[in-house]
Amino acid sequence: MNGYLVLILGLIILLGTHSVRIVADGWRSAMIGRTGILGWKALIGLVSLLGFGLLVWGFGLARAEPVVLWAAPVWARHVVALLMLPALVLLVAAYIPGNRIKSAIGHPMVAGVNIWALAHLLTNGRLAGLLLFGSFLVWAVFSFSAARRRDRAAGVTYPAGPLSRTVIAIVIGIALWAAFIMKLHVLLIGVQPFG
Asked: Where are the bilayer-spanning segments (predicted)?
């Protein structure tokens, strides 16, 4: 099985399901009307899981047959480690209601994916990395832009809650970043950030 084809199929399915609101918001609304919000989320969740499974499998297969496009400089690892700190703080901020990061950015998870993908492109000079992180970067740029446009059109704002919620998001983000640097990245991904 060609790992690159499996990876591309996984990316199409995963990012496609997460792009429906960007390219077909009317159809999405009609489907939610027919299935209900829980039915829609269940359907999107199942399809996303399939895409994610194919993506992981395909990336693993492609890593076994690497196509090197460029050699990443050693300093890039340090830049990635630094960029991952705000990426993980943004990710955490997406799930803590009423924090000032979400109030300022609106969609911190997608902003975090932007940083994550860009950072990882710096150290992945292989075709599989370019496909994976490049696809996520392109998707995140369009997704963030579309979400901000929707917010402006609907007059949506995100309230800034107490400073304590923002501090909690930052502290958890830093702790998650430290855990990934020290152990989680190598356990989950098989790559030592500074190895």
From this structure: 43-62, 74-98, 104-122, 129-147, 167-191
